[in-house]
Design brief:
By secondary structure, this protein is mostly helical. About 55% of the residues lie in helices and about 5% in strands. A three-stranded parallel β-sheet has the order 1-2-3, with helices on both faces. Bound molecules: tryptophanyl-5'AMP (TYM).
């Protein structure tokens, strides 16, 4: 039987953090053997908010390097930069012409992000989910592994695909979001009421994948907890719950065992143990990252080959889409 197709994307808007790793990248690496995979650094999405060109250029390569360092293998997965495959922008335009504005007005991420910018908000930010739909639909994607915050965007993508298929025939595969049962929403350390995010003003909220052991220890030590004593998984105690969830995800132990283990320990010890587990889990990833970015031209070569493979597949799809709409 032919393998199904997986597509997912990641922005280059800041430094990758533990939420990106546990909610997305780590799962991409784990599931890559069972699917045809496309993993994309979505630089065109990144520029929907203002970026410094030199920083962006560096971040795009950093993110791509981290994907490989996290275990995604060029033999099993196509890793590429979105702007290297022009079909993404082209299909986004075609989908723009069939997507009602009302659907985009309902997107919660747009509402949140645009609140700060008011009238200055870019058309690109409003249109962001349509470009995301283009990413997914170009590759006849069956499954989109993402964190919880992307569920609404993948559902919108399905709606757009369905509308297109209704008007122009069955051109697009309808994709399903795939969200991990645990880890789909890793919370901030300083503010565990909010998800860990790249654009967080407060640096101490996020553990970045390239943080040093000392930085990690400091951030975890300062993590917000509560005034109780017992250590248990409890959604009403977001700080402790988040630390325990991170520990669970990185040790693969079950919840009961973890609670038993910490039953006679203090918050201080919990934090020390969480920090060490994070440090040890990130160590091999960091080593691989430095190895592969240290070798001149290695990463660029892999990305070039990724763009060629993705481009060939995307061009084929574009031919089908253009024809169905009467453009060819
Ligand atoms: P981005 O770059 O914000 O995040 C990349 C992936 O990391 C997940 N994630 C989290 N998971 C758990 N806890 C968190 N705190 C956390 N923060 C982020 C995200 O859910 C995501 O899976 N719009 C997308 C990029 C994109 C895309 C696509 C994704 C563009 N085109 C097509 C899938 C398919 C985004 O901004 O992800």
């Amino acid at each position: 039987m032919e393998k199904k197709t997986v597509f997912s994307g990641i922005q280059a808007s800041g430094s990758l953090h533990l939420g990106n790793y546990l909610g997305a990248i780590r799962n991409w690496a784990a599931m890559q053997y069972d699917y045809n995979n496309y993993f994309c650094v979505v630089d065109l999405h990144t520029i929907t908010v203002l970026q410094d060109p030199a920083t962006l250029r560096a971040k795009i390569r950093e993110v791509a390097g981290l994907l490989f360092a996290a275990g995604i293998e060029a033999e099993n997965s196509v890793v590429f930069i979105q702007s290297d495959v022009k079909a993404h922008s082209e299909l986004a335009w075609l989908l723009n012409c069939i997507t009602p504005m009302g659907w985009l007005h309902r997107m919660t991420q747009f509402k949140e992000k645009s609140e700060k910018q008011k009238e200055e908000v870019s058309v690109g930010l409003f249109d962001y989910p349509v470009l995301q739909a283009a990413d997914i639909l170009l590759y006849d994607t069956h499954m989109v592994p993402v964190g919880e915050d992307q569920k609404q965007h993948v559902e919108l993508c399905r709606d757009i695909a369905q509308r297109f298929n209704y008007r122009y025939g069955g051109v697009f595969v309808l994709p399903e979001p795939h969200i991990p049962p645990v880890g789909g929403r890793v919370m901030g350390l300083a503010n565990p009421e909010k998800k860990m995010s790249k654009s967080e003003e407060k640096e101490e909220d996020s553990i970045y994948l390239l943080d040093t052991p000392d930085q990690i220890r400091k951030k975890v030590k300062k993590a917000t907890t509560d005034s109780l004593r017992d250590i248990s998984f409890d959604e009403n105690r977001p700080g402790i719950n988040n630390l325990l969830t991170i520990y669970q995800l990185l040790t693969d132990k079950n919840r009961q065992k973890i609670e038993e283990y910490f039953s006679d320990k203090t918050y201080k010890i919990l934090k020390e143990e969480v920090a060490e587990v994070v440090i040890e889990s990130l160590r091999p990833l960091q080593e691989r990252y430095h190895e592969l970015t240290g070798e001149a031209g290695y990463l660029d070569g892999m990305l070039e080959r990724g763009a060629e493979k993705a481009g060939a597949r995307a061009e084929k799809k574009m031919g089908q889409v253009s024809e169905s709409m009467g453009l060819k």
